[in-house]
């Protein structure tokens, strides 16, 4: 299935049947998310991959009792850092050095560019920037899930502070931004399963400038 066909196939599943997605598919999905684009390549977030049924049940009320939370195979919670620090930038530059076999000293300009852009911002502005990076990761996740023929539901509809408390995210230096339930659509009860996809026509969506 081509990527376009996969995106045509996907929709935000309203009900799932509780079946477990094959572990190899989940691993491929996580690999795709790992490769997502982000500003400076910093990836200022972590993703909790939750299979535990009791934990999902605790989260469900904080997500307005959406059934996909507990019907999913896995619940992904995308959580951004609470702050960008010099230490985190140093750790990232160290990773770049080791991965690309580049001397740390040769990465000074890169490090200074990241630090100059982010450390000068108030924490509130840092958080706004980091939350946007989470949305990039979610976009990658949705497309990858579709290509793997894994059903998914992106979720903004939850109470972040309650989810943070349930998952002890503050202690981890994180805060919940988005969630994504993955699993298999329940065709018997999902009222959206046969609904046609509604999108603006290309001639209205795109403005070509030649």
Automatic annotation (TrEMBL):
<protein>
    <submittedName>
        <fullName>NAD(P)H-dependent oxidoreductase</fullName>
    </submittedName>
</protein>
<dbReference type="InterPro" id="IPR000415">
    <property type="entry name" value="Nitroreductase-like"/>
</dbReference>
<keyword id="KW-0285">Flavoprotein</keyword>
<dbReference type="Pfam" id="PF00881">
    <property type="entry name" value="Nitroreductase"/>
</dbReference>
<dbReference type="InterPro" id="IPR029479">
    <property type="entry name" value="Nitroreductase"/>
</dbReference>
<feature type="domain" description="Nitroreductase">
    <location>
        <begin position="8"/>
        <end position="183"/>
    </location>
</feature>
<keyword id="KW-0288">FMN</keyword>
<comment type="similarity">
    <text>Belongs to the nitroreductase family.</text>
</comment>
<keyword id="KW-0560">Oxidoreductase</keyword>
